[in-house]
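Batch job 17 of 40 flagged for manual review because the log was empty.
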Amino acid sequence: MFLYLKELWRESLVLARLQKELAMLIPAEMERRKLLAAFDTISKNVNCPHNLSHILTFVTTLLRLPPGMEGCIVEAGCFKGGSTAKFSLVAKRLRRSLVVFDSFEGLPENSEKHDRTIWGKSIKDWFKPKQFYGSLSEVAANVKKYGEISVCQFEKGWFEDTLPRFTQKVCAVYLDVDLASSTRTCLKYLYPKIVPGGVIVSQDGDFPLVIEVFDDNDFWLKEIGCAKPKIEGLRKSKMITIVKPTE
């Protein structure tokens, strides 16, 4: 009970800050209310294991990007398409495409030994193969009904198969891939494609094994070819952010 109440308290503080930020980025109250109402409708009709604060963290990040910045938006890991539908509404507003990578078969076979989050919450049963399964047809149907499917491009398959073939420039990436191995693959192939000033946001910053990947200096130098960048929220927040240096 204590952990649950503490999590609610954290969520309320973060959400209040993000809602104030959203009000500055979308000053028109009716327009802002319409977007939040759409998010609420999606959450009520699609299985969404994220909180509104997770979505608004990325949405406010997108809205802060310079309009002239090159690149598409990438989402890696979409489950039933609830987050995809929400991001697609913002992508439409920003006149950017949204490229969605997912196996559409759930999590892959893995031997990762996850135990607890950085706050002590048990996650032992979260990472089984096929967990978080949503078929491509189901995701597309949800996005078509509640979002803006016209801006979406779906890339079906395991990350190690689809990401090496991806050649587009990227302005922002949202990672919700759960596994350390998947995080490693996504960073390896997506970070080099992010334009200077572009952003990666991960929803998996409360998983110790994922934190190890982000904080691995040798991985950044040997696998990605650059020094580890500044990582905001590392070991402190579920949502961690990297802004790619402009130099």
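Reviewer: the log was empty due to a logging misconfiguration, but the result itself is present. The CA atoms of residues 25 and 131 lie 36 Å apart. Unflagging and moving on to job 18.
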